[in-house]
Each structure stands twice: as C-alpha cells, then as structure tokens.
Amino acid sequence: QVRLVESGGGLVQPGGSLTLSCTASESISNFIAMGWYRQARGKERELVALITDDGQTRYGDSVKGRFSISRDVPDNTVYLFMSNLQHEDTDVYSCNAKYVLDATIDYWGQGTQVTVSS
User: Fold this and answer.
1) Chain-centre distance of CA 107, in angstroms?
2) Are 117 and 16 spatial neighbours (Cβ–Cβ below 8 Å)?
C-alpha cells in the first residue's frame, strides 16, 4: 500500500506564499504522474497541478502563473510552491499519485489545509 504524507499547509495572508510537500513511501518513479488537487466543501475536486513521470507539468486555470509543481526523485517528494495566494485558494489540498498496472490506480494523501486570510 502506497502512503502519501503531505505537509506545509497553514495560515497565510493574501498575497503570501506557501510550499506544500508530499512524500511517498516508495519511489515516485513508479508513478506515471503525481499531483495536487483541492476540494472545497460542496464543490467538485479540482486539479491544481500535476507532474508526469517524464517531467511534464499541467496546471489548473485558476493557479497558472502563481503555482509551481516540482519533484525530488531521490527524496520521493513532490512540491507545490504557491505564490500570490488569494482567499479563493483556501481549501484542503490533497496529494495524488497515479500508478498504472492493468488499470490506473489512484493513491491519496490525507490532505493538508491551506487558509488564506488577513
């Protein structure tokens, strides 16, 4: 069973920055993609950022130009750097890892709260 452990959430003022980390219990090279999603209460889950096993990245429209995803393969960790945070970025951010065998298997972390407030 893959474990994903997130850290780095917290309270930040509007315009501020925060970096989230997601560390996997096995090599992240095993996954075809890892990413971050967020889901506010009553809303659908939204892609924040994703990085594939060959290093390609994809971002949700609402965070383009403000957020950046990166990875450290030897440390089995994916990072999400968030800048110019706004109130609407307040959410629970969950780390995801996609593993492909015969089908795609999604693994999720427990989520970390990010609150943007003055």
Assistant:
1) 12
2) no
CB-CB contact of 38 with 92 (8 Å): yes
Per-residue model confidence as pLDDT tens digits over 49-62? 999 999 999 999 99
Q: For residue 108, what are its two tokens? A: 């999720």
Give the integer Cα–Cα distance in Å for 2 and 76. 12
Question: How far apart are the C-alpha atoms of 87 and 114, rounded to whole Å?
Answer: 10
pLDDT band at 79 (very low <50, low <70, confident <90, very high): very high
Other beta carbons within 10 angstroms of residue 8's beta carbon come to 16
* Residue 17: φ, ψ to 5°: -130, 155
Query: At CA 66, angle to CA 63 and CA 68, rounded to 5?
Result: 90
Q: Indicate the SS3 state at residue 97.
A: strand
Model confidence pLDDT, tens digit, residues 80-103: 999 999 999 999 999 999 998 888
